[in-house]
């Protein structure tokens, strides 16, 4: 040791600058290592922090948000939100796929900047929010002791209620630049499986203040019956805050979680009630791509429809037949789509792809398939199982179909949809047993050129099968499909 110290001091005295640089470099290396170890320890402590985890085991965040910013209020955490959080909590996390593994889920807003006005003064503040009953169930760290759910909380949690349908099924105001190409409509369909009588009712509003009530009825062995009733939209006919709408002689209302549809016209009279199956709905979504704004919501993927329809003096009585309702809005000029829905005893599917004129094969809304299933709970309420990317959508078995403008269009005998999400896969085969054709909306005015394509509405027998989470499923039911084909 005495020799080592002697050599060290000799080296320091002989080369003082070199020795100083070596000592400085060594010290900086040690400091960097200490800093890295401290950061690692901080990250580990942060991952275990109940304030970050909010008392639960898993934190769900919007895409692109770094969990670390929740502690340091980084810029990527500003103003983020999860759309359709009620649907996520009630119908996905508490739905048939995850309810066995998710004991409780609580949506929260944390440390939001707000401004409070009081007595003429404005003060900055920080606020957090949650649903008290869900906070307690999930053991949320900042749950307010003794707090009770307000009426708005209970309405937010309701799976099938007027508040839900008024929130998701409202009309929308087009912008000034969109008005000429704007269209928005409520769409109702039904089928009587025993007689195979089916129909479509559309309540259409355009951005120009004009609309129409369109009804199509098909009875087996009889020609299709079409009714078109032009309408003028008044300033207070359409609601942007509720599902209650008025278009000409037609009214839509929601009461006690049921839809009421009434039409009073000389050619068409209808008095219908649609009772939704709880949990079978798709919340609203909107895209704005390729100069096409497109919105879509399915308030009633499956339900029970009852009532009376009278067309040209002939009445049809419906008692608890399968019914469906969706709602579309956007700039639809030059837009086509592939779409379909089907329901069986234990589940339902919905698929679709939207195509904008001038974009070639690129879809404005990519082809996707949604799968629902009934849950194991005693109520039998359904819930979303998952969304799957459509890998193949084919029409096969082409044959002569409906006659449109004196020409016969081709129609497929079968529609096949294959979809995947990771290891999960779904296949839906739709065997077509009837096809209706019509000229697409916007192409039927006297000044329009001859149509070059036909809008097909197909009625099908559906067979759905697949594997989700390693568990196979299969069911058979009734389905509907829509597409466009060239007119020869």
What does this structure look like?
The chain has 488 residues and is of the alpha+beta class. It folds into three domains: 2-46; 106-157, no CATH class; 164-486, Beta Barrel (AttH-like fold). The protein is built from eight helices and 23 strands. The protein has helices at residues 2-14, 16-47, 50-53, 69-72, 85-93, 132-138, 151-157, 162-168, and strands at residues 108-118, 121-130, 182-192, 197-206, 210-218, 225-232, 245-247, 250-255, 258-264, 268-276, 282-289, 292-311, 314-331, 335-343, 347-356, 363-374, 382-396, 399-404, 407-411, 414-421, 424-438, 453-468, 471-486. Strands 3, 4, 5, 6, 7, 8, 9, 10, 11, 12 and 13 form an eleven-stranded antiparallel beta sheet that branches. The chain has an eight-stranded antiparallel β-barrel with strand order 14-15-16-17-20-21-22-23. A hairpin with a 2-residue loop joins strand 20 and strand 21. Helix 1 (2-14) crosses helix 2 (16-47). The longest helix has 32 residues, at 16-47. It is elongated, with a radius of gyration of 30 Å. The relative contact order is 0.09.
What's a quick, concise take on this entry?
The chain has 488 residues and is an alpha+beta fold. Helix content is 17%, strand content 50%.
How do the strands and helices of this protein lay out in sequence?
Elements: H1 2-14, H2 16-47, H3 50-53, H4 69-72, H5 85-93, E1 108-118, E2 121-130, H6 132-138, H7 151-157, H8 162-168, E3 182-192, E4 197-206, E5 210-218, E6 225-232, E7 245-247, E8 250-255, E9 258-264, E10 268-276, E11 282-289, E12 292-311, E13 314-331, E14 335-343, E15 347-356, E16 363-374, E17 382-396, E18 399-404, E19 407-411, E20 414-421, E21 424-438, E22 453-468, E23 471-486
Antiparallel strand pairs: 1-2, 3-4, 3-13, 4-5, 5-6, 7-8, 8-9, 9-10, 10-12, 11-12, 12-13, 14-15, 14-23, 15-16, 16-17, 17-20, 18-19, 20-21, 21-22, 22-23
């Amino acid at each position: 040791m005495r020799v080592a110290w002697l050599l060290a001091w000799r080296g320091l005295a002989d080369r003082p600058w070199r020795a100083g640089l070596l000592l400085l470099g060594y010290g900086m290396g040690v400091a960097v290592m200490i800093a890295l170890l401290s950061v690692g320890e901080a990250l580990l402590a942060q991952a275990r922090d109940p304030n970050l985890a909010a008392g639960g085991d898993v934190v769900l965040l919007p895409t692109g948000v770094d969990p670390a910013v929740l502690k340091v209020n980084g810029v990527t955490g500003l103003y983020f939100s999860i759309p359709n959080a009620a649907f996520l909590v009630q119908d996905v996390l508490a739905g048939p796929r995850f309810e066995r593994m998710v004991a409780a889920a609580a949506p929260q807003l944390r440390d939001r900047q707000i401004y409070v006005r009081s007595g003429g003064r404005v003060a900055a503040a920080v606020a957090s929010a949650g649903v008290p009953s869900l906070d307690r169930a999930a053991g949320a760290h900042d749950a307010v002791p003794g707090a009770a759910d307000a009426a708005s909380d209970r309405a937010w949690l309701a799976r099938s209620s007027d508040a839900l349908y008024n929130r998701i099924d409202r009309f929308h105001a087009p912008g000034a630049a969109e008005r000429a190409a704007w269209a928005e409509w409520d769409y109702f369909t039904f089928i009587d499986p025993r007689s195979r009588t089916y129909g479509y009712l559309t309540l259409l509003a355009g951005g120009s203040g004009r609309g129409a009530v369109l009804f199509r009825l098909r009875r087996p062995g009889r020609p299709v019956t079409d009714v078109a009733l032009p309408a003028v939209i008044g300033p207070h006919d359409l609601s942007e805050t509720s599902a209650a709408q008025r278009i000409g002689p037609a009214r839509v209302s929601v009461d006690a979680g049921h839809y009421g549809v009434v039409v009073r016209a000389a050619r068409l009279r209808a008095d219908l009630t649609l009772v939704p199956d709880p949990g079978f709905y798709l919340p609203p979504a909107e895209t704005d791509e390729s100069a096409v704004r497109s919105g879509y919501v399915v308030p009633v993927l499956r339900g029970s429809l009852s009532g009376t329809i009278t067309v040209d003096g002939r009445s049809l009585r419906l008692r608890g037949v399968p019914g469906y309702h969706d709602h579309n809005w956007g700039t639809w000029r030059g837009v086509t789509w592939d779409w379909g829905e089907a329901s069986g005893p234990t589940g339902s599917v919905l698929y679709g792809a939207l195509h904008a004129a001038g974009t070639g094969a690129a879809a404005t809304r990519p082809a996707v398939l949604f799968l629902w299933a009934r849950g194991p709970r005693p109520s039998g309420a359904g819930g979303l199982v998952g969304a799957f990317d459509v890998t193949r959508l084919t029409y096969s078995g082409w044959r002569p179909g409906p006659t449109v403008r004196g020409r016969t269009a081709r129609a497929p005998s079968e529609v096949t949809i294959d979809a995947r999400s990771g290891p999960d896969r779904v296949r839906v085969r739709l065997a077509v047993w009837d096809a209706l054709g019509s000229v697409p909306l916007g192409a039927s005015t006297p000044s329009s050129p001859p149509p070059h394509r036909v809008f097909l509405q197909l009625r099908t027998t559906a067979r759905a099968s697949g594997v989700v989470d390693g568990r196979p499923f299969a069911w058979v039911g009734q389905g509907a499909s829509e597409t466009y084909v060239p007119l020869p």
